[in-house]
Write a structure and sequence with these properties.
By secondary structure, this protein is mainly alpha-helical. It contains ten helices and no strands. The longest helix has 38 residues. It starts with 21 loop residues before the first helix and ends with a helix.
Length: 263
């Protein structure tokens, strides 16, 4: 605790309060964001889920099974995360910056990382029911084994962190909220177009773009979970890459928040 200096009259002022710690601050921001976004985001979660279910139904008459069907189901499941954590979070931070809402958070005695992580975790939490419904429905529709779906316990938070960090950074770095919305929608479209197809069948330049998407490694790990005999070693490697990408994207979002808050 920092000691306070006496004033000119010699009186000893009250000591300064200790600096807010990261984890209690993160929990407070998470609960506040969750309660504020619950009513507005649940209808959008239904939209994201029905969108993914519609894609799987449309692709059912195109793919022949095997790796293609696993990629479609895994990509459609992670697309729910992309819609909420990337697209909506980019819009939220873009509007927050344009409307002066960052000034409110800047005056709070909480670390910048707590604001970014709390908002990202709240938005990613809304994706859990939609991802579960999409993965189970897709597995039944394409007659895939469902025994490996426990891997969603790792895929959802790791892919959600990576995509939410990217969405927050896009919203905070965009000079106008319209551009933040555009960037979020473009990112979600990239996750849609590149996430439902096996990487080995794409042209080299497109495959490179796919490898740069944070959601790709969550899709790859979930694709392996739908195999009859999953290669858990490679799935763990994909999740490790996803975790590293998530840490980098959240660090970028924290830096973007500090940059936007002091302007």
């Amino acid at each position: 605790m920092a000691a306070a200096l006496p004033d000119a009259s010699g009186a000893q002022p009250a000591p300064l309060a200790p600096r807010a710690r990261l984890w209690p601050s993160l929990g407070a921001v998470y609960r506040a964001q969750l309660s504020r976004a619950r009513v507005a985001r649940i209808p959008l979660l239904f939209v994201a889920t029905f969108q993914s279910l519609g894609i799987m139904v449309l692709m059912r008459g195109v793919v022949d099974g095997g790796a293609e069907s696993r990629a479609v189901v895994a990509g459609s499941s992670v697309l729910v995360v992309a819609f909420v954590a990337l697209n909506l979070l980019a819009q939220y931070f873009g509007q927050l910056r344009a409307g002066g809402g960052l000034d409110h958070y800047a005056t709070l005695p909480v670390p910048a990382a707590a604001v970014v992580l709390g908002a990202a975790a709240a938005y990613a939490s809304f994706t859990v029911p939609g991802v579960l419904v999409t993965a189970v429905a897709g597995g039944l529709l394409y007659q895939l084994p469902l025994g490996g779906l426990w891997l969603l316990a790792a895929v959802i938070p790791l892919a959600g962190a990576a995509l939410a960090g990217l969405g927050a950074a896009l919203g905070l770095l965009a000079p106008r909220p319209e551009l933040a919305t555009l960037c979020g929608q473009l990112g979600m479209s990239a996750a849609l177009l590149l996430g439902v197809l096996p990487g080995g069948q794409l042209p080299a330049p497109v495959a490179l773009v796919r490898d740069l998407l944070p959601s790709t490694y969550g899709v790859e790990a979930l694709t392996r979970a739908f195999e009859a005999h999953p290669d858990w070693g490679h799935a763990g490697l994909d999740l490790g890459v996803c975790a590293c990408v998530g840490a980098v994207s959240l660090a970028l979002a924290t830096w973007a928040y500090r940059r936007a808050a002091v302007r």
